[in-house]
């Protein structure tokens, strides 16, 4: 992970972002520190598939991939 992305994640984890964005950023930071998805799932109380999905989303789209998406619906 480059310094720019690490800085973005740290800002997401500590500043005005939604609680879910902070949790997602924390998960990615843990991953970058070498935590395994199974350990992260236990620590964050997420399902293992959820951890893997957020990591995949981040790898594909950076910080935009770990923010909650707005869905149209009715």
TrEMBL record:
Pfam families: HTH_29 (PF13551)
Top-level division of the source organism's lineage: Bacteria
Protein name: Winged helix-turn helix
Organism phylogeny: Bacteria, Pseudomonadati, Planctomycetota, Planctomycetia, Pirellulales
